[in-house]
Amino acid sequence: MDRQTQREHILECRVIAIIRTDSSSDLVSAVNALADGGIDVVEITMTTPNALDAIRAARKECPDVLLGVGSVLDSETARAAILAGAQYVVTPVLRPDVIQTCHRYGCVVAPGAFTPTEIFTAHELGADFVKVFPVNHLGPSYLKDLLAPMPQLNLIPTGGITATNAREYLDAGACAVGVGSAVVRKEWVSAGRFDLLTEAARALVDSI
Fold it and tell me: What is the rounded distance in angstroms from the CA atom of residue 102 to the CA atom of residue 160?
């Protein structure tokens, strides 16, 4: 899947489900559960133990899911994740070298940024999307304020997004939303309650 196709897939799904757990042993089941609920764009964070092995396994077992890596802080980690099978890269902060590395490998990248200057700088550096993080402190109105003078931005708000407010962010101009614990709770994964992940994913998809 080339970079343009990856971008279109994210825009079509409009949700990136973020998996952040204390173990990687059940991540394939978690990815499949989310896909069953209608979310087929999934991010495995580098804070997950053995994250690279989990990405390799998920790419093999879940070929229909667009699988990415999150919490990437440097270009070396981005490269390792891409070689392990990550199809897009998400960072919590703006790192120009990560953007360059991702594009060198034909991979979509969504760097994290918070202020208008950071967000526009990420866009100028060629970011496919900009992850507005943490957005929960400012709400949907912040996106409207950003997009009024800069409508060309492709924003993915992340932090505190739920089935209750996801639609508000999309209506405010977000091209997609990043959702974590609202659809993937650590206790659900550790207890093997993948049905709850599917249920939460379906509720979120229905809400938007």
Answer: 27
Residue 139 has pLDDT above 90, yes or no: yes
DSSP secondary structure, 54-79, as one string: HHHHHHHH-TTSEEEEES--SHHHHH
Tell me the domain boundaries of the chain.
3-207
DSSP classification of residue 136: G
Of 124, 131, 144, 168, the catalytic one is 131
Of 12, 43, 118, 124, catalytic: 43
Q: Cα 4 to the chain's mean position, in Å?
A: 16
Q: Is the pTM of this model over 0.85?
A: yes
Active site residue 61: no
Instruction: Report pLDDT digits (tens) over 19-52.
Output: 999 888 899 999 999 999 999 999 999 999 999 9
CATH architecture of 3-207: Alpha-Beta Barrel (3.20)
- 131 tagged catalytic: yes
